[in-house]
Specification:
seven-stranded mixed sheet, binds nicotinamide-adenine-dinucleotide, 38% helix, Aldehyde Dehydrogenase, Chain A, domain 1, 16 helices
């Protein structure tokens, strides 16, 4: 093996080589070159990590910390992320090829999750129940679940991890993380900060490798209490089935095919930017991509002309260059999938107004995985290009006439992650937002997320919520404690 950096798993507070001794390559999508080797963990490593997390949950320092002390540790991790955001972002770009502007923006914003949930740790209050029985004192406690398995995808590794990790820790759980095999290194770098922050060994562990080899073993592990998964709907369904066998809770954040609806009273220039941000930001590799653009008949032609003109100016290039607007696709399978969908769209009769080919030219460097920003019009909602997630810079434009038709098209899909609504009418904005079956609706904006606001999917886009107070509840369970204040124990043969 060459002198490229080597990344081990992180188990029980230590850098650990995989038990198989094997490593896999991690590739920079812009140079198409291998830049490091990552531990190829298996079921044995999964077991070591879950056991370490279980021991840390049940014994030692972690369960004896007060909620305030626990919160302070989580907060401290946020401070360290703030101080190291640039380095973390560079690891992310090297692995996933997304723009440094985007990844640095995310990494600079990440500390908020740790500060918010760190602050919340000692504000989770139970209740004293005014119970309907004499001589009983009854109260509730909100307690952690145990070992939480966090499985993340490659598109925003640390952001999507932080949705889970900050809340899980603040609630008092311990964690085993399995990052995507395409983007393991930023999560492993984060462990250096975890150690500096002073978390007891075993509270946070990372095993790297492939879904079938190590991810599945984590999900099936009898000591894993809950699975928090972000990824594709097919893998999500497998994870859900495996978790069900062990009767474990699951949070699933899955795919999307989100409608971005442009009404005829929208501010056209703003809506054009909203459409661009919905599909070409992050090279379309975001679960919340506004990949179905619904445009009202009266402004259709004018809007589409402006959109295509704007999209033509999008600069492909080196993701580390802050002037670049569209970077490479992250993985070869994803690249092939996008090109396949472009062919499907053409064969279905959609009209290709822009792009439709692999990206090439000096701006693409040595990368073999650029796809031109692509726009299809004349799409109907029954076409596969309108119904299936592409996860790339490919936009499908659908024409509609009335508000009712827009709502019908928006909801006529298996997914329900997000939606955009562009209108100057507050009545229309509220009516349409209420009618859309999706976990997030943006009005006159797109692609905004916050640590404070619940995020998750309707329908096949997922189960459960991350972020905000609801995100914290996902990591707690309620215990009801009954204390008798009676002078004696009443008739033991009758329910009290
Ligand atoms: P993926 O489903 O292929 O992989 C996600 C993670 O799951 C990886 O770490 C992978 O190794 C692991 N995995 C795969 N099969 C597994 C199994 N059987 N058991 C346990 N772990 C398994 O997804 P991806 O290609 O990395 O990411 C793209 C997908 O993620 C897209 O569909 C996108 O919409 C979705 N996504 C959703 C959200 C959201 O919040 N809803 C956010 C980002 C991405």
């Amino acid at each position: 093996m060459s002198a490229l950096p080597k990344f081990n798993a992180y188990i029980n507070g230590k850098s650990e080589p995989p038990s198989s001794g094997g490593y896999f390559e991690t590739v920079n999508p812009y140079t198409s070159k291998v830049w490091g080797h990552v531990a190829r963990c298996n079921a044995e490593d999964a077991n070591r990590a879950v056991q370490a997390a279980y021991i840390a949950f049940t014994r030692g320092d972690w369960p004896t910390l007060t909620a305030t002390q626990r919160g302070a540790l989580v907060h401290r991790l946020g401070d360290l992320i703030r101080d190291n955001a640039r380095e973390l972002a560079e690891y992310e770009v090297r692995d996933n090829g997304k723009l440094i502007n985007e990844m640095l923006g995310q990494c600079n914003y990440l500390p908020n999750w740790y500060w918010y949930y760190g602050g919340l740790a000692d504000k989770i209050e139970g209740a004293v129940i005014p119970i309907d029985k004499a001589d009983v004192f009854n109260y509730t406690r909100h307690e952690p679940l145990g070992v939480i398995v966090c499985i993340t995808p490659w598109n925003s590794p640390l952001l999507l991890l932080s949705f889970k990790l900050a809340a899980a820790l603040a609630a008092g759980n311990t964690v085993v993380i399995k990052p995507s095999e395409f983007t393991s290194t930023s999560t492993l770098k984060l462990m250096e900060l975890v150690e500096k922050a002073g978390f007891p060994p075993g509270v946070i562990n990372v095993v790297t490798g492939f879904g079938a080899e190590v991810g599945a073993a984590l999900v099936e592990h009898p000591k894993a209490a809950k699975i928090c998964f972000t990824g594709g709907s097919d893998s999500g369904a497998l994870v859900y089935q495996a978790a069900a066998k062990g009767l474990k809770g699951c949070t699933l954040e899955l795919g999307g095919k989100s409608p971005n609806i442009i009404f005829d009273d929208a501010v056209v220039d703003d809506a054009v930017k909203g459409a661009i941000s919905g599909i070409f930001a992050a090279t379309g590799q975001t679960c919340i991509a506004g990949s179905r653009l619904l445009v009202q008949d009266a402004i259709y032609d004018r809007f589409v002309d402006k959109l295509v003109a704007f999209a033509k100016t999008a600069r492909m290039g080196d993701p580390m260059d802050t002037a670049t607007q569209v970077g490479p696709v992250t993985t070869p399978p994803q690249y092939r999938k996008i090109l396949k969908y472009i062919e499907i769209a053409k064969s279905e009769g959609a009209q290709c107004l822009l792009g439709g080919d692999p990206g090439s030219g000096p701006e693409c460097g040595d990368s073999q995985w650029f796809v031109q920003p692509t726009i299809f019009s004349n799409v109907t909602n029954t076409m596969r290009i309108a119904q299936e997630e592409v996860f790339g810079p490919v936009l499908s434009i659908i024409r509609f006439k009335t508000d009712e038709e827009a709502i019908e098209i928006a909801n006529d899909i298996a997914f329900g992650l997000a939606a955009g609504v562009w209108t100057q009418s507050i009545t229309r904005a509220i009516k349409v937002s209420n009618a859309i079956r999706a976990g997030t609706v943006w009005v006159n904006t797109y692609r905004a997320v916050s640590f404070m606001s619940p995020f998750g999917g309707y329908k096949k886009s997922g189960l459960g919520r991350e972020n905000g107070l609801e995100g914290m509840r996902e990591f707690l369970q309620t215990k009801s404690v009954w204390i008798s204040t009676a002078a004696d124990v009443p008739n033991p043969f009758v329910m009290r």
